[in-house]
Amino acid sequence: MERASPIEKYIFRAQRPSQIKIARQLKYLQEYGLNRGVLNLKKIIGYELWEARIIGKANIRIICFQQGSIIHILHIFSKKSQKTKDKDLLLADSRRSEILDR
Fold first, then answer.
1. Is the entire prediction scored with pTM above 0.85?
2. Distance separating the N- and C-terminal Cα atoms of the chain
3. Helix (H, G, I), strand (E, B) or coil at 67
């Protein structure tokens, strides 16, 4: 049996309203890709990463990148402060490197 990824674990543990918002944001990413025209999506300066923002009580962030036509979800977390922590960016960037090295 395959083990759940950290992304799946986060989603399954989230409250139902957050799960719905996450699913909606993932659908937008799938439909429109990573571009500045997508609402609540921004390029992270200094990295080849994008941040999808889900505003609300949980303040969820989805860090991802695009490889060809595939969008990889690298990290998902609740953001508690104004600035995204370096540890979250470094984790996402290391997961991106792992994918590119395959």
1. yes
2. 22
3. strand
